[in-house]
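ARCHIVE CARD
Drawer: 12
Card no.: 0347
Subject: one protein chain, sequence and derived structure
Cross-reference: see card 0346
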Amino acid sequence: MRKGLVLAVCATAFLATGARAQQTYQLPGAYAIPLPPVLEPQFEVGLRYWQSVGNTRFSINSSKVDPAFGNPTSVLKYDDMDGYSGEFFWYARNETNTFAKGFVGGGGLSGGSLDDEDYFAGQVKFSDTFSQLKGESLLYGTIDVGQHFTPIDGATKLTLSPFIGFNYWQETAAAYGVRCNDDDVGGAVCGGAPGEVVVPYSTEVIKNKAMWSALRLGGEVKAKLWNRLTVMGEAAILPVTYVVNEDSHFLRADLGRPPNVEDRGIGWGYQLEAALRYDITPGWSAGAGVRYWYAEVDGKSEFVHFDTKVPLNDFTSERFGVYGDVSYRF
């Protein structure tokens, strides 16, 4: 009987130990870790028409080469150059809200005027002429990469997108004819009285080709006003802007074969844009906007066939216009 009692006590202790072990090593349930929302990639392509007007102005200083000349020596003003161009544009964004966007465009220039002024020392104006601008081309392109943010939690209707990019902008203007303007030497150099056309407007006299390359640092803000209407604004500073300008004087045989003057300079600029977009369907949208570009540099002007360089001062280009576009979003 004592032996049976011992066995019963041992059995009871074993069962109790097993129960405690079972309670001690019981594993907790799995903990659910929330994952960030996954965004769908987006891709958009479209076509745009830009109607614009632009100006290009610059001057050179030859007084250090020949003290008989003034500073500035020559001032050229290409004004009121109407531009019309078509663009292809695109936008792509991945699941992490990193995006790339860009556009490439081209078209023509029409209308406008060229005023060419030249000075002796003491800023005695020895020549002032007017020429008509008739056509030539406009070419440009931009590519940007950046990150898309919602600056306020839950504010899906407001987004901010900083970016870095590159812009290329080329304008070629052709000037025809020469009309004398009033100067300080009675038209002796121009060859005619003020208002007299000394070279017919059918003759090409000057062609100017300005080629701008620039780094872009900026940002875009978008706000959805209603279910289908979005307003956007974009601003970019051009901290490093480089220009190569080919200046061809066709009636100046003494300057050699065109292009006989080449300008180069480094400076800065900025580009601004604002637009409204309306979603016609979940895929199709249409928009309208305004755009302004400005760049300026100082540098050197080289008379190519003489290997002579003089300072290039205040070379500026600007272009302002309105556009309309249509796009499809995937």
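Annotation on reverse: The two ends are 88 Å apart (CA to CA). Residues 39-329 form a domain with the Lipocalin fold (CATH 2.40.128.90).
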